[in-house]
Predict the structure of Caspase 3.
Amino acid sequence: MSSRLDANLVPDSNSESSGERHVPNESELMSSQRLETYVSLAEAERQRVQSVFGNVTVDTEDCRLGRGDDAAEFVVVDGERPGLALLLGFEHFSFEERRPGVVKDLTNMYELFHTHLGFEVQTKKDLTVAECMEWFKTVTSDTALLQRVSCVVMVISSHGSEDEVAKGEISRPELRRQEVKYYQHRIATTDGSIRTGEIISMFDDMNCRALKGKPKIFFIQACRGRTNESQNVLDFVDRGVQISVESEPSSTLHPSTQFSRSSYNNPVMQCGLDETDSVPDAKAIRAKDIRSGHKIFVESSERLRASMEEEIVLAPPPCIHNSVIVMASPPGKVAWSEVQDGGWLIMGLYKVLMQYVDNRHKIRLIPAITRINHLIALTMQTVTNDPSLNFMKCMPVMSHTLERDIVFVPRNIQ
């Protein structure tokens, strides 16, 4: 199984001298000088996540696979039919704020997909546009690799934005009308940005025939805001709504956790920036003087230009055939990420799927994503020094064109 935790794309990308670009590789994780064992690291991480989410549990349901029926109803990912996970994270940028939580994102996803789900894993960090495109081309042209896997999962963690497309660049006449504003999502790299649709299209049936008929799954932790210097952050955050929810007994909170009771009687994670070490998001959405036990920042991009003056706004997700795309926030909304613990979407993905693993349950992907949305919507919000930025929410959005649901079989029940 060809899994690795770091990239060797450029000569110094995993060198100690390169410092900021380095992510520990698997041999380093096993080194007694760095930490006792990878297992102890994984256990420590699970305990840390438990401390973040407190005693909030996620109800899971096992998936029964009947003999001969699973092929017709599900795409099964297990030891005989492993998946491929492509993990891409960005911490340092030429024109954006640093995102230190990406190291936690990559580590958690490596543990989840490789250690517990048995995926083959490739992980890259802090690539340029050219390096990203070269990696995607290498993967999509590796016929031997793609023929032996049952699906591909890509997790991307970075800054992002929805940028308006110039009228002259739009091919469809109905989208060139004056009253229409058409946006496309972009993901920031160390030296620029890549259109998200361009990344996803490289894995479609036409451009990657080895994956024809196989599911492609994308989790994208990046902002979808669109703004400029003159606009207010409040136009691009999710205020949430008040609902009445009866607390479950399993949701009883330990006094040492970072949760408190919300106005609708539900445990809510308190997230914010340390006031002595504020991390601004972009030039237009600066969250100054925000404090709490956790540092947090908006996953936004420096180059956000749209003015929101037109009557019709379109921002379709770049969904290809037989794919699932999960974005960290709705169109036009910012996404949140903690400095220490990483992005909310990836935190929820790790928490929910690890609950399936702990319960020794097979994972049906679509119901699991619904549980991720439920966890994030009802247990996470910002708490800041700025009253206008208190209690902000963030709801992931899924679009899919799957022909069959996907079932991940954890290693502990294979």
Q: What stands out?
A: The radius of gyration is 21 Å. Residues 295 and 374 are 23 Å apart (CA to CA). The chain has nine helices and 19 strands.
